């Protein structure tokens, strides 16, 4: 009786999960959006270890030559194979119930497993003969994630798994190694920040960065250390099966940089015995002086997420475009200077191991150019946690990993809005997961950011937020009739107009769309490709197609919509000088340009009157 009641209860939970997933899919209209790790019924796992089944993994020690990623071979032998058998990669390797949180109820038996694997594959993967022979050889690419690994074979599929065998443990030779450095602009133009992850807390080793200009003696700069624990998660998988220790996150501030200068750097930890554990060597070019006239190139995209190159987690079913975008950007690394990833960073959704996978995926980019992020629903949203939206899209993370893993020059990193200058550009990055409407703290910040830039020196004024606060003819906004995130532009369009914002960028909607210079839903300029003189209003661009499943457009094409593309891609902005700007939209599949426009103008064109944005004049003299 009790048993069947429990079954019923489980069924009800499953149904609730199904229906909330359905509504999620419906609301976003973009097909498969589940975090693949959430499909695993971790709490349903039962243990039926079987001595006739074997799982062996090798090599036993990884990274003997200092690598931070390595391929591992896993051999399986199962006398009763089934096509639903699968292998989960667990890290730490000890993943039994002893790691579970006490339930507080002595009558309740604690579950056998309460942590999700960091990745998984079906035993039939690349071994179609498995169901006949019971033998399979799987290859996994592992990254160094501060703990050892074990491979567990399950039968019964991923929702009702039966644990039948566990492999030997394997480990990186130094699991604590400092890894995945990511650069970000500091609070002033001559400061670069380096953030990285390690297994060393401050009582074990002192973190620092060694850096130098070409041919000069090197300097050392101290780093601060942060971490967070399960109690700072707000709920969901982040506080239960998705939790994984994030290690220690260090940030160093490299100051007094010369403009446009190449520096080499490496991160490091000095152990108590004075031995130093070094990271790899990297180089970056420091930022230009604000207003400086030089070639400046910016990459912008949203919603990239991550994918597993070894085919784990059903390969790219979650963010199909992610690896293509990453690879195009790695290939083109010499041809841009700074990156903005405007929200929906990893789609970890409460499965914390995925933050390491993401920082490993973007490492070649983020360790070389500043990688500036914005906050999206998948970083921040959680009910009753202060986010503007009450959804559960962060899987319980409520912003904490994003605010810790990546540095942004915000006054308060929990309020994810900031300004940053890059030569002739001023960027005002808003946080659409907190209220932006007139009268709010954020609105004040936006006005301050837009109004404090000297446009003769920094003519290119860019606004950005994760959700389309301006214009989008995405299907669900079309059905709503708003053609924007509801309440998006109502109070902000006055600011964009008054301060002559050139371009506003958004993600969230997974496609590309460019508008005319538009104000109050009307084009103020009929030109489509070569804007000359006063722009008249802001051009709004949705560039949320860097990785996640694509979002269909509405059938109606509003007059302000100039170019729409249902494909994966990203934007490159090039400022040649104070009077010439080029925007290019490239597809992630081939890196070629599919949409472009230029703006050519003088300073007086910025000062000139625009609709509802004319400064008062007097005839007194
Ligand atoms: C990194 O740079 C330092 C300082 O120039 C040098 O001593 C070291 O050998 C380099 N390490 C590697 C792995 O190239
Ligand atoms: C600005 O750059 C454009 C594009 O390279 C060039 O045609 C133009 O002559 C430059 N203008 C000035 C003032 O240097
Ligand atoms: C990724 O790029 C390859 C090579 O251009 C292409 O064949 C493939 O379709 C792309 N994948 C996606 C999801 O766009
Ligand atoms: Fe989003």
UniProtKB/TrEMBL annotation:
Example of a GO cellular component annotation carried by this entry: extracellular region
Record-linked CDD domains: MPP_PAPs (cd00839)
Residue intervals of the Purple acid phosphatase C-terminal domain: 537-595
Residue span(s) of domain Purple acid phosphatase Fn3-like: 55-174
Signal peptide: 1-27
EC number(s) from the headed UniProt entry: 3.1.3.2
Domain Calcineurin-like phosphoesterase, first and last residues per copy: 297-512
InterPro entries the record matches: Calcineurin-like_PHP (IPR004843), Fn3_PAP (IPR040974), Metallo-depent_PP-like (IPR029052), MPP_PAP (IPR041792), PAPs_C (IPR025733), PAPs_N (IPR015914), Purple_acid_Pase-like_N (IPR008963)
Family matches, as Gene3D superfamilies: 3.60.21.10, Purple acid phosphatase-like, N-terminal
Catalysed reaction equations from the record: a phosphate monoester + H2O = an alcohol + phosphate
Keywords from the named record: Glycoprotein, Hydrolase, Secreted, Signal, Zinc
Cofactor(s) required for function per UniProt: Zn(2+); Fe cation
One Gene Ontology molecular-function label: metal ion binding
Subcellular location, record wording: Secreted
Domain Purple acid phosphatase N-terminal: 181-285
Keyword presence, Signal: yes
Domain of life: Eukaryota
Subunit structure: Homodimer.
Family per record: Belongs to the metallophosphoesterase superfamily. Purple acid phosphatase family.
Protein name listed in UniProt: Purple acid phosphatase
Species whose genome carries this gene: Erythroxylum novogranatense
Organism ancestry: Eukaryota, Viridiplantae, Streptophyta, Embryophyta, Tracheophyta
